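Sorry, I am new here, but would you mind making up a protein's amino acid sequence and the tokens describing how it folds?
***
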Amino acid sequence: MKITQVVCQILRIKNVQAKTASSQDSVLVRVRTDTGLEGIGEADSSPEVVKAIVDAPFSHNIACGLREILVGENPLEHERLWQKMYRRTMYFGRTGVAITAMAAIDMALWDLKGKHFGEPIHRLLGGAHHKRIKAYASILFGRDGRETRDIGHRWIDAGYRAVKFGWEPMGPDEAVDIDLVRGAREGLGGDATLLIDAGCVWDARTALRRANRFAEYDIGWLEEPLREDDVAGYVWLRDRSPVPIAAGEGECGRESFRPLIDRHALDVYQVDLSRCGFTDAAFIRSRVEEIGARLCNHCYTSPVTAAASLHWLATCRDAFLFEDCVEDSPLRHELTIEKVQARDGYIEVPDGPGLGVALNEDFVRSTLIAESS
């Protein structure tokens, strides 16, 4: 079996808003073979930049576009192909956007492998520990505590027993931040799990003060309180915080996660399959389990990445929560024929070959703004 085409498609919904939500556009990679099989993958990144990395022609041996590297190769050799892509993009890759492009291709290769063998990806990764996982509704804060409370009511009424609120308007001062968290807890009631995503807004000392104040609202974790590269700050904060510290969604591949894992910087490591791919996510899983920390997925794009995340998270021994983006975006809900969403607070792990989902080609055509092959 040989790779014959690497197709890159950019999708974008009509009403893109100025908010921190990556469910408004997507870049798909479709890897096709001479046997007629196709694997699909997705990157959570800047779609046009990912497309440029896939499309780029040969420049020299360590500055080469991904399509150039892959056509003619055997798609089943995912580990060798990951290393080949990593080596031949060294001058513009290593821990950034090139890794997200590689992740989309890696996801597509694993989808292909599953279809070739007639097995779900979680089985090819070594086997699922879970058939379903408790899901948390992942949503942005309201404009203030009152609106955040109402959002919380909505998702508790929808059957979730865990909700995460994140990003704007958290950060400008303590009163605003506490108002948001208080409203969130009021909306969820006393029994549901409340998670807070600060969105990289504080220095370490301010984050510790917020963690102490938020502890009275019984939050399950405080996510990304510091900028993503502040490894020393995360080590300092985790050693002092009364609540668990979570981060990692922006990290691209194993090398990006390495300093966080080596220094035991986090309580919860959040891995995005559309930034790491299955090959590196499996490595990260082993390292995090080795140090006794916890794993969770990050996913705020489409059902393609949601399905990929479920396959990977099901193989994590101590998986305890799944991030279920509940943004009211057609990209989140209509990109695949199958619905990949929680029911009554739990989400089922797909069991079909490969990712176990198929693209809704009508939706792809209706949102397609660029394509190359």
Observations:
- The domain at 124-348 is CATH 3.20.20.120 (TIM Barrel).
- The two ends are 19 Å apart (CA to CA).
